[in-house]
Amino acid sequence: MTSTSGAASSSKICFNSDCNDLKSERPRKGWRLRTGELAELCDRCACAFEEGRFCDTFHSKASGWRNCESCGKRVHCGCIVSFNAFTLLDAGGIECLACARKNVVLAPNSSWPPLLFHSSLSERFKDYSAKGWSQLAGSGPVPWRLSIPSLEKTKIEDFSERLMNGPLKLGAPDILENGNAGINCEEPPSSCLTKSQQPSLKEEPSNPPFGLAVPYTSPGDANGQIGVSGTHLRPNPQPPLAKQLHSNLHNGLDSSSETQIRNGRPRPDGRGRNQLFPRYWPRFTNQDLQQISGDSNSIITPLFEKMLSASDAGRIGRLVLPKKCAEAYFPAISQPEGLPLKVQDSKGKEWIFQFRFWPNNNSRMYVLEGVTPCIQNMQLQAGDVVTFSRLEPGGKLVMGFRKASTASATEQDNEAKNSSGVSMHGDAEMADPTSWSKVDKSGYIAKEALGTKLAASRKRKNSMLGSKSKRLRIDTKDLIELKLTWEEAQGLLRPPPNHVPSVVVIEGFEFEEYEDAPILGKPTIFATDNSGEKIQWAQCEDCFKWRRLPSNALLPSKWICSSNSWDPERSFCLAPQELTTEQLEDLLPHCNPAASKKMKAAKREPENVDALEGLDTLANLAILGEGEALPASSQATTKHPRHRPGCSCIVCIQPPSGKGPKHKQTCTCNVCQTVKRRFRTLMLRREKKQSQKEAETTCKKPQPSLPDKVLDDDPVPRTNAGNSSPNVKKVVSEGSDNDPNRVKSSTSPFKGQIDLNIQPEREEELSPGADSGSMMRLIQDATERYLRQQMLSSGGNSNSDATQTPPGGGSEGEKISSSVNLGSSHRDSDRDHPTVFSIKTSAPSSATG
DNA sequence: CGCACGCATGGGG
DNA sequence: GCCCCATGCGTGC
């Protein structure tokens, strides 16, 4: 903590905006800021914060107050300050820390002090906040841009909100309660991770076989612990100092107690804790995971990762663990002998390692012994990265890996080699080779560097394994790796070919459910031609020409003219493109800033958020390689080099089509949840659009001149008149968020591919105007406009609903299908999706493969 | 003699 | 100057 100085500390004024007092010489720490630092407060505010009175004092009039479901106590859930003061209940609602704690105590897994929980929670929250921040901030290279709920993105509140909405089980620590409630985080920073898990434990006493027992012990610090999403590292390289604080404050770290609890583990001095490298920080919170996954059973909490050193990968069989991580995520051990730790690898295989430490300079060096078999099994070598995650309930420890192999570039084919050990299922195809390789490169810099360096010389220190800094850097880049909004991701989902989704009604909305996990397909643009026939436009991978296809055509992610069996005349690249440039532009308004902005402006739906989170979760699962969510196919996965373990992109979360578990309607797995959410979102969006269109139609405002903007400008249907769908209108979500953060799909629309791995830096190239707006959105917008124009011209009215969907290629007639649905399934039978912008990828099955 | 174990060393941040 | 951690290396089996 000490080191925390930072931006937060730069000012001499209390960080509390509602207090302008000067900080004392030794400012007191408050909550963690997104930068990872702790807010520095004046004594008065610090006291309030530490006593859990901060929100009561300064935010009494703010929104976000809720009552504890158990005791009725009023808890402020709307800001970062009290992030850890409550726990989200599975059934909804929140519980103050005190009540949560009570429950926790009951937890079966007594081996770990509930405290941990708290700490975990706090940690989580921290992460959360951190995450949120970054996301919010947007500017950063945050990989995933989750869409933030409708809340204002900019505020921390969002986080809370999210949390609130989320189905977390965590027991949250509550600062309010005694300050120390329990948490003993010796090492404040890390501990929190587990919190969420803990709850689970409670719920499910019987821990899975794995039992990893990873105690949630630790507090160490890990900053990142919690889960957050994993995969990627936090964008910010800043140390998680805040955690400590939080822990302390919120969790109630009592230092004294902590210590004891920890089995005598030496507590690291504050310093160490803080120092966790960002790279270790998980991005996603368990909550995120949970929410998404919905699957209470499997919540993956990415813990940390480590690039294997020569020693680690050597025959000695000792894997040196980053001290902080070890202390934070692994069971506390007081004896050098440590204890056996059961770890499951990405293939579901269990390994038992001896987790121990060596006294070293008044400190400890933690190592996992007996890892050789595992490392060999995974074919890992120095430079590769092993990842550790915790599978919640049960706390099963999961070990994934990511190959660094430089050579790998060539070997990409080998899934194993490629990327992560974890499974990334997706279709490899999504990423085009090109991007892929790029990704790869940038993806893991360290590795890359490694490779190179290695080749050059194996000097250990300098090179490969690189310095810590390098690692950090890697993280950063990794962060960048995937930019996809939930909605965008949604758009990518499609039902597996030949699968007829069953319809499930959720919350009044019908959703399609697939027996098999949806797949990712090639992005296409659905539209209705002049004759009212529904069609879709797909772009050839080779010549980039857009070809008209039946609306029900499912395309592999890589589709080329020669595969155009629907139109022999255009089944070769030399054939002219039917679409004129203008038309194409209309369909793909990639450069329309207005649109993007508009999109941005759109409110986000909480659901989207959840979904996003879910994706992350899924990704994490994938990473973990737990068999559950992602079948072992780590293999099959995609070739998304940039997708690190934990990657939650659609590609990574989806098992290859046709593979993977079957999903029943009642299935609550991550994939299903995600799909459900996706549909929900789509529905809402669609309705909204429809209503808007109707409204517009009614008004006849269609201005030919402003085609592009028309829709944009009125995202919100002022008119209810069109009430085709009452509810929806408000939801403007379409785009969702907007935020700059969002990723754009990188791909250039023209290519018709969505590059999940887009590099932010390159965004500009691709879509100048849209920075944050994703291409998808743009496309959508464009499509809408286009359709709209058509409508106008044809005088059709849009009703909308009907449109496209018919599985059969519906030809329903509505000419106007104005909206573009991303990724809707073809089958959308629902009238709902007027236009579908589907991105399909190839299912594995699909040819591309 | 070879292997493991565990501590020591020292570069690097 | 401290801490972390990769590796070296002594010791014991």
UniProtKB/TrEMBL annotation:
SUPFAM superfamilies registered for this protein in UniProt: DNA-binding pseudobarrel domain (SSF101936)
UniProt keyword list: DNA-binding, Metal-binding, Nucleus, Transcription, Transcription regulation, Zinc, Zinc-finger
One GO CC term, this protein: nucleus
Superkingdom: Eukaryota
GO biological processes: regulation of DNA-templated transcription
Biased composition (Basic and acidic residues): 689-699, 825-834
Domain TF-B3: 304-405
Ranges of residues in domain CW-type: 531-581
Listed GO MF terms: DNA binding; zinc ion binding
Pfam families named in the record: B3, zf-CW, zf_VAL1_N
Biased composition (Polar residues): 191-200, 245-261, 407-422, 790-806, 838-849
Subcellular location: Nucleus
Region (Disordered) residue spans: 180-275, 407-435, 686-775, 789-849
PANTHER family documented for this protein: B3 DOMAIN-CONTAINING PROTEIN OS07G0563300, B3 DOMAIN-CONTAINING TRANSCRIPTION FACTOR VAL3
Protein name per the record: B3 domain-containing protein Os07g0563300-like isoform X4
Organism of origin: Durio zibethinus
